[in-house]
Amino acid sequence: MVCVVSRSGRELQRYEQGRRLVVGCIPYRYKSGSDGSGEDELEVLVISSKKCQRMMFPKGGWETDESVEEAAARESLEEAGVLGKVGRELGQWSFMSKRYGTFYEGYMYPLLVKEQLELWPEKNERQRVWMDVGEAREVCQHWWMKEALDILVRRLATLPQHPQENVLRP
Question: How far are the Cα atoms of 48, 68, 85 from residue 26, in angstroms, in the given order?
Fold first, then answer.
């Protein structure tokens, strides 16, 4: 069963030393090489902000009734409509919220996408676009998410080969 409504409100939000804790996810997949080389190309999924058309990776508040990995998976489902396997933490960043003028602590995780849903909680509020890493780095509005993307790319490059089993391919 997939949740049909996004969580809202701040009653269950986690805070540490007065800073709101947020969790983001970089959904990724491998696209079969279009140049005939047999090399698979890494793609990441970016989404539009609710407030404007600026692009980013899914992220939101880490709530008291879930683990950080569960929060990462939930945000990817609610905002981007994808399910998959959450990987090892990419890092932690402190950043200033432009909207609220306060500092947040952001944690980023990779999500190897195994399923892309046609209907998801924020479908009517956001756009989602698969793109290559270079494009994603250019359009992503948050510096800390760009750093997380760089870490993910380096991490995946060191693997002997990327996971093949049950990976979503276009």
Answer: 14, 14, 11
The C-alpha atoms of residue 48 and residue 67 are separated, in whole angstroms, by: 25
Output the six-digit token pair for 100.
């609220």
Between residues 98 and 1, the one the model is more confident about: 98
Q: What percent of the chain has pLDDT over 70?
A: 84
Task: Determine the Cα–Cα distance for residues 125 and 101; give it in Å rounded to an integer.
Answer: 24
Q: Which of 100, 102, 101, 91 is nearest to 143 (CA)?
A: 91
d(CA 106, CA 89): 11
Average pLDDT, the chain: 87
Question: Please, which residues have CB within 8 angstroms of residue 151's CB and are 6 or more apart in sequence?
Answer: 90, 91, 108
Q: Which residue has the higher pLDDT, 161 or 11?
A: 11
